[in-house]
Structure formats: C-alpha cells, structure tokens
Amino acid sequence: MRFPLINRLYKSYYPAGKAKRDETIWIGEDESNIVCCVRFKAIEGIQLLTGMLVKPDFRGQRISEQLLVATIEQIEKQPCYCFAFSHLVTLYQKANFVVINDNELPHFLASRFKRYSDSGKSLVPMIYQKPALSQN
After folding, report:
1. pTM, two decimal places
2. N-acetyltransferase domain: which residues (predicted)?
3. Buried b (16+ CB within 10 A) or exposed e, 74-105
4. Hey, is 55 helix, strand or coil?
C-alpha cells in the first residue's frame, strides 16, 4: 500500500484525515497521481466509510460518485455508516445512503459522531441501505 502518497494527499487537502493500516483503502488514479480515495474502518461488526477525498482539480467531474459505485462490494460487506458533511448528503443519498438520527447509531459510533460534531463539523449520520430489487 502506498501510505506515504495517500497521507500526503490528505495532508494537502484534508489535514484531519490520515490513512491507518487497519483500514480498507480504495484509491482512484490518473496516469501519474492518486486523485481520490476513501477509507473503510471496521468496528465491531460494522464499517464506517470515512475520509472520502477528491483532489480539488478533479471535483465536479462525478469522481466521488464513481468511487462510491466502484466500492459497492466493500460497502455491502457489512452494515456501512458514514458521517457526511451536510453539503454532501445528496451525493451519498444517490449512492443509497439514508439519513438517520444520531440516536440510531451504534453506541461506539454515536460517541465518535458527537465528538466530531462538537468540534464544529456540520455532519449528518447516514447508513447504507441496499436497494430493493425492482419489480419489472
């Protein structure tokens, strides 16, 4: 794994994020650089999608949507939660995440969510719900 490159990306564009060796990390690249990444942290039988980042020069090109589609097998492995920045809720809803109340979070995520929210971040708790098969 290319932790130094991934962490350099976070340091440049999202200093609060840092890849950890116990996470599952997905990256997207162009010909020469990592342009996006997302991490999944497994905790007590669930996973937290965290630290999704697209380099600013690549934003507005639907790369985050493509990254969520590319990671669907990972997302569906275990119940998958995320704490979406409020301006990104629609993005996650397109990927079948639904807004939940913070009291619906498992206790170990609720305390993390509270800590992040108390630090001034405008976050919305969400959980992935696999879409029902269409009745065609």
Report:
1. 0.91
2. 1-115
3. ebeeeebbbbbeeeebebbeebbbeeeeeeeb
4. coil
Give the chain's length: 136
Residue 67: other Cβ atoms inside 10 A: 20
Which DSSP state fits 26?
Answer: E
The Cβ of residue 42 has, within 10 Å, a number of other Cβ atoms equal to: 13
Q: Does domain 3-128 have CATH number 3.30.70.100?
A: no
CA distance 117 to 45: 23
- The C-alpha atoms of residue 136 and residue 134 are separated, in whole angstroms, by 6
Measured between alpha carbons, how far is 72 from 119 in angstroms, rounded to an integer?
Answer: 30
Question: Can you read off the two tokens belonging to residue 16?
Answer: 């609060």
| Cβ atoms of residues 104 and 65 within 8 Å | no
* Mean pLDDT for all residues in the chain: 94
Distances in Å between the Cα of 101 and the Cα atoms of 13, 58, 78, 110, 123 are 29, 32, 20, 10, 11
DSSP letter assigned to residue 105: S
Give the mean pLDDT of 31-55: 95
Does 136 have pLDDT greater than 60? no
Q: Where are the domains of the chain?
A: 3-128
